[in-house]
UniProtKB/TrEMBL annotation:
One of its GO terms (biological process) is monocarboxylic acid metabolic process. InterPro entries: KR_dom (IPR057326), NAD(P)-bd_dom_sf (IPR036291), Sc_DH/Rdtase_CS (IPR020904), SDR (IPR050259), SDR_fam (IPR002347). PANTHER family: 3-OXOACYL-(ACYL-CARRIER-PROTEIN) REDUCTASE, 3-OXOACYL-[ACYL-CARRIER-PROTEIN] REDUCTASE FABG. This is NAD-dependent epimerase/dehydratase. The gene is fabG2. Residues 7-172 form the Ketoreductase domain. Belongs to the short-chain dehydrogenases/reductases (SDR) family. Pfam families: adh_short_C2.
Length: 254
């Protein structure tokens, strides 16, 4: 692994939700954080909160040329030790109402962007002595869910990418793992509760309770809990772990 005094992490979708929590957690642990997101304003707010270790980089990960340029910017400053592919979007609609454009957009953000980041950064990690790739998936990476065919397909693909790259880089000291959260207190969760309220007439609290009840623990996961798992997978304690899928879902998948 690289020198502890120069450890760097790249986080996509860094300005809110899980990505924000991950960025702040790594900054507190002494990492320099390349924080990638579309909103310059949100990234500036993150930088103010996280301090000088936050390196904002405004980029739409669905834009291939912009993403490749961002990778060059990162590598020009030094090889990152950790990559957290967190950026993700969803489309909630029946199959017949999911357009090809919807599918393409979801796949671009959820699959193609992580693929490109891995392709551009992993060889440098290997040459530098090693690194860690942590993909943020979903419980839908291992199970089906109605009205989310595009999203579910993308997370299954991300799981496949994780497994393939973990094997390819297993002897190059670069581990690749995936974290599969259940419902997390994020904007995506807020959107789901709003949709339930709109379609069923339930209150927001009732909608929250319905989603929480899907897990054995009956609770919503917090972004900081996902961040804690990412820190573990980046630690020396996780050195022999690769190709693994960690469910953080309160027992929902069980």
């Amino acid at each position: 692994m690289t020198n502890e005094t120069t450890k760097t992490v790249v986080v996509t979708g860094a300005s809110r939700g899980i990505g924000r929590a991950v960025s702040l957690a790594f900054a507190r642990e002494g990492y320099d954080v390349w924080a990638l997101a579309r909103s310059a304003e949100s990234l500036e707010a993150l930088r103010k909160e996280g301090g000088e270790r936050i390196r904002p980089l405004t980029v739409d990960v669905a834009d291939e040329s912009a993403l490749l340029a961002a990778c060059k910017t990162v590598l020009a400053a030094g090889t990152p030790r950790v990559l957290v592919n967190n950026a993700g979007i969803t489309v909630s609609a029946p199959l017949t109402k999911t357009s090809t454009a919807d599918l393409s957009k979801v796949m671009a953000v959820n699959v193609t962007a992580p693929f490109l980041l891995c392709r551009e950064l992993m060889p440098a990690m290997a040459s530098a002595g090693g690194g860690r790739v942590i993909n943020i998936g979903s419980i839908t990476a291992t199970r089906g869910a109605r009205y989310t065919s595009a999203y579910c397909a993308s997370k299954h693909a991300l799981l496949g990418l994780t497994r393939a790259l973990s094997v390819e880089y297993a002897r190059k000291n670069v581990t690749v793992n995936i974290v599969n959260p259940g419902w997390v207190e994020t904007d995506m969760f807020a959107g789901a509760t709003a949709a339930i309220t709109k379609t069923t007439g339930r209150s927001e609290e009732q909608a929250r309770e319905a989603l929480a009840a899907m897990s054995a623990m009956g609770r919503i996961i917090q972004p900081e809990e996902v961040a804690a798992m990412c820190l573990f997978l980046a630690s020396e304690a996780a050195a022999p772990i690769t190709g693994a899928a960690y469910a953080i879902d309160g027992g929902e998948a069980a």
